[in-house]
Structure formats: structure tokens, C-alpha cells
Specification:
Mean pLDDT: 85
CATH superfamily: L,D-transpeptidase catalytic domain-like
Helix content: 10-25%
Number of helices: 4
Order of helices and strands: EEHEHEEEEEEEEHEEEEHE
Radius of gyration: 17 Å
Strand content: 25-35%
């Protein structure tokens, strides 16, 4: 059995089953049916170590007020239910989770923020490149929607206040830039929410960790 999405992505029976399993686990957690750190955990989250302030490439990254976040969105190692190959980035929009597939039956799971209704992208692509503290240039559409961004039409330099955060993973499909990204954010409170103009946001500490694991050219699946 196959299902063809509106964007042309074909999901086979296995992918649909995996998606249902992931959503089921998320639903159970939301209803209090799992432990606070998740029934699929094989390594407990360690937020006191993961989310401390740090220095990175000359910039200071503030600590995350992780106690203000739902513990489900803390970084942790889990049993891999994605079925994706080693090195794949797998994003579950409904769960608000991003998985990096380790390849030994486990994955690193991170909490994310996703695009608001009408701005999200899904499908298959590749991570074409990874940038450290990149310059951010709002699109023409964003500048039209938010005129105050016009001052950044030539770009905003990288730094702690930059919306792209400490790392940006650029998503391409069929050799073309989708204009969607996986990137860090200084807005830690947005994690778990529909908050962006379509990109996938991560805590800066998490995107630094993810970028150290992902190889350019890696597959990304967004469902």
C-alpha cells in the first residue's frame, strides 16, 4: 500500500506504520500514558549538562531555562522507530521531534518548533550544507509581511540574536534549495510550538550537537 501526499512524496506501508507508531507514542505521552522521559528512552535526558551556557566560535550561548520546557522536548537517546538509514535526519512535524538515526537501532531525539499553519514544508531532501553562525537574510515575502525586516535585506550578521542561531542545515531537493532550514534559535520558549515561517527550529545547544553528527549530503525526511 502506498499513499501519495500532495507534494508528491510517496509513503509506503512501512513508512505509514512507522509514522503511526511515532504519533501513537506522542499521543500517549500527551495523555500522561508514559513516563516523563518517555517509554522508548534508552538513555535518560541530562538537561543540566546539555543546556548549560557555553562559548562557541567566539560567541556566548546562554543557558536554556529547560525547566520551563516540557521534558519531552529535552534531548535524549531513544529506540529508533523511524526505519530510516544511518545518518538520516527524520522530522515528525506532528510530534515536534527531530531524530538523528545512529544506525544501531537507536536515534538521538530533539525537541523542535515548526512552521505555522500554511508555512510548513514536508517531503524528502538532503542536507546540502551546514553553516556556523550564518548570516540571515529575510526573504522578499517576509519583508513584505513584516516591513521592519527591510533593514536586513542585505543580511543580519551571525550572532546570539540572529534568528538562524548557532548552526543552520540547508535543505535541498533534487539539487535545488527549498529555502527551508533546520536551524538554532535564541527563542527557547518556542520549542514544541508552531512558531516559525516554515523552518525547523532547535535549541542552540541541540543544533550544535546535531550539526556535529550530520554529514553534508545526508538524507532528510520531513513528515
Amino acid at each position: 500500500m502506498e499513499k501519495i501526499l500532495a507534494n508528491g512524496v510517496v509513503l509506503n506501508r512501512r513508512a505509514l506504520l512507522l509514522s503511526a507508531l511515532l504519533l501513537g507514542a506522542s499521543s500517549q505521552a500527551a495523555q500522561g500514558g508514559t513516563r516523563p522521559n518517555g517509554t522508548h528512552d534508552i538513555q535518560a535526558a541530562d538537561p543540566e549538562r546539555f543546556y548549560v551556557a557555553l562559548e562557541d566560535n567566539g560567541f556566548n550561548v546562554p543557558s536554556v531555562r529547560y525547566r520551563k520546557l516540557d521534558p519531552r522536548f529535552w534531548r535524549r537517546r531513544v529506540i529508533d522507530l523511524t526505519g530510516a538509514t544511518e545518518g538520516t535526519v527524520f522530522v515528525s512535524l506532528a510530534e515536534r521531534f527531530l531524530y538523528f538515526v545512529i544506525g544501531d537501532g537507536t536515534a538521538i531525539r530533539y525537541g523542535i518548533a515548526i512552521g505555522k499553519d500554511g508555512y510548513r514544508w514536508s517531503g524528502n531532501g538532503e542536507i546540502a550544507r551546514i553553516a556556523t553562525w550564518p548570516k540571515w537574510t529575510p526573504t522578499m515575502e517576509m519583508r513584505a509581511r513584516l516591513p521592519e525586516l527591510e533593514r536586513y535585506r542585505s543580511g543580519m550578521p551571525g550572532g546570539p540574536e540572529n534568528p538562524l542561531g548557532a548552526r543552520t542545515l540547508y535543505i535541498h531537493r533534487n539539487g535545488k534549495d527549498t529555502l527551508y532550514r533546520v536551524h538554532g534559535t535564541p527563542e527557547w520558549w518556542s520549542i514544541g510550538r508552531q512558531a516559525s515561517s516554515g523552518c525547523i527550529r532547535m535549541l542552540n545547544q541541540d543544533v550544535i550537537d546535531l550539526a556535529a553528527r550530520v554529514q553534508p549530503g545526508a538524507a532528510i525526511i520531513v513528515l
